[in-house]
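Weekly modeling sync, notes
Attendees: S.R. (lead), two postdocs, one rotation student

Agenda item 3: backlog of single-chain predictions. S.R. asked that every request posted to the team notebook include the full sequence so nobody has to chase files. The rotation student volunteered to paste the first one in as an example of the format we agreed on. Action items at the bottom.

Example entry:
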Amino acid sequence: MNWIIFAVIVLIILTMVKRMMPMKGVGHITADELQGKMKKDKRAHFIDVREPNEFSAGHIKGMENVPLSRFKSAASGLPKDKEIVVICQSGNRSVAASNKLKKAGFGEVTNVRGGMSAWSGQVKRGS
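Predicted structure, as returned to the notebook:
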């Protein structure tokens, strides 16, 4: 009986880890790379999937707020012919959003590793 409980726990953990893993075709950049991309790449569309209260407390200029909680309806308004660059607080919600975009047929999707936490650390270093 104990092995059944163990198997169920392992299955739950694997399912959770899989949801946090980016799917094939999702690109990744660091916070340092994001800063350069935002300056140079005028075709990319930059979105922040944090909730409005998080976004209003501090965000990167040029990011559009598309909260993950309302993502399904809001994503339909995003341009499919542009690269979509996604950020959140730590990188977990942006991976989920990136996966949803790929499943919805968006061609070029890029996740910012470490999210705003990495961006804040990068800003503090003076990069």
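Discussion: group reviewed the output briefly. The chain has a mean pLDDT of 85.
Action items: rotation student to repeat for the remaining queue; S.R. to check formatting next week.
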